[in-house]
Amino acid sequence: MITVASFGRLRPLIGVVALIVLWMLIHATRAVDPVLLPSPAETWNALIIGLTEGTLGADFAKTVVRTLWSFGIAVVIAVPLGVVLGASQKFYESIEFAIDFFRSTPASAMFPLFLVIFGVGEATKIAVAAFGAALVIMFNVAYGVMGARKQRQLAARVMGAPRWRVLTDVTLLESMPQVFVGMRSGVSLALVIIIVAEMFIGSTDGLGQRVMNAQMIFDMPDMYVAIIASGALGYAMNLLFIITEKRFVHWGGK
Fold first, then answer.
1. Which of 3, 67, 92, 220 could be a cystine partner for 85, CB 3.0 to 4.6 Å?
2. Residue 227 belongs to some domain of the structure
3. How many structural domains is the chain composed of?
4. Which 3 state secondary structure label does DSSP give 35?
């Protein structure tokens, strides 16, 4: 017997089931050419073959590694800079235009520049993804620091806390919810840029390269498998940050 509580736990699966049913109906009615849209069963078979006999697992792992490297570099660079920007209003205003300009520039437009600097290889993919993610993270960290409640900062100063203690024990803790928002956006953007880079910057592996190869040889089931794997990876990374934020930044909004 399905109880209200158990139904609530299953509610997130409703969208997945509805999407698969819609997919099956479109395929069965041939609303889209079956060559271009294989059935869920064909795609599932391609997934199993790719994992057991092919290189899907290796491509997935390679994309994960590249994304984590670029995200890690972005965090190491962007978080300290964001704190500095947020702690100094005058410094922030003096370079806001330059940072906002590059943040508004599509990362794909930066590919030629990074190719000239780093050449064709792993460094280019990771560098351009780190660049895009770092700008997003840095702005969110700066906004978080600037948005820290002045009453709590003032109270800490009144109680005799030195400036560095106010920064570490009040301002940074206050800014953590916004920092996590930036990190969640940053890792998602890093994944997007990595996959696009794998498509167009001399890759021999990775999910992006797998999508392009499958499309060129018209292996539609494998192409859909690679696309679904990319989406699943992005969803998993986003979910991991949400869980981590709820676990360690429980004071957000309080």
1. 92
2. yes
3. 2
4. coil
